[in-house]
Amino acid sequence: MNLPNSITMSRILMIPLFLWILSHSFPWQGVGGLQEILASVLFILASITDGVDGYLARKRGQITTMGILLDPLADKIMVTAALVALVAYNPDVVKVWIAVLIIGREFLISGLRSIASSEGFTIQASDLGKLKTVVQIVCVVSAILAHRWYQWEFGPVIVRVKWFAVAAIYFTVLVSTVSAIDYFAAFWKKIDRASREARKSFILSRRKAPAAPGPSTP
Q1: What is the pTM of this model?
Q2: Domains, the chain, ranges and CATH?
Q3: CA distance 101 to 120
C-alpha cells in the first residue's frame, strides 16, 4: 500500500476513535473540556489528511483504483459519523433533519458521480463543493465545542460559541443545498450534451449508410 492510500486508511481508522471520544464511555468526560478538545483536534486532523492524500497521490503519480475507491468513502463515513454522533451529543445545535439533509446530499452526489463514471465522463469539484468541505469542518468543530462552552471571554472580546455553532450548521445546510443543485446542473448538462451527440452521430451514420441494391432485371 502506497503512502497516499495509507493516509486515507489512517483517516478511516480515526473514525472509531472519534466516536469513542464523543461517547459516554469516554473516561474523562467533563474534565476541563478535554473530551471536546480531543474530538475537535482529531476531526481537524482527519480533515487535513483528506487534502494531503490527494495531493501526494497526484504529485507522486500514485493514483490507484484503491485510492479512488477509499478516498470518497472515507470522506462520507467521516461526515456521516460526525453528524450522527452530534445529533446525540449536542442535539440543541445539530437537529436530526439537518443531519439527514447533509448526509443525503453526500450520498446523492456519490450516486451522480457513479452514473457520470458509467457514462464515461467526470464532473470536477466546483468552488462551491470546496467551500462546502471547509464549512462542514467549521460546523462540526464548533458544534463539538458548543457542547462544553456557551461563550469564550477574552477580556472585552466575547465569542458566543453556541451562536457561532448554530450559524455554522445552518450555513452548512445552505451551502450543501446550493452546491448539490450546482453539481446536479453540471451533471445534467453533460448528460444532455452526451445524449445530443449520440443522436447526432446516429443520424449521420444513417445518412452515410449505403442504399440497398434494387432488384436485378432479367
Answers
A1: 0.78
A2: 3-195 (1.20.120.1760)
A3: 29
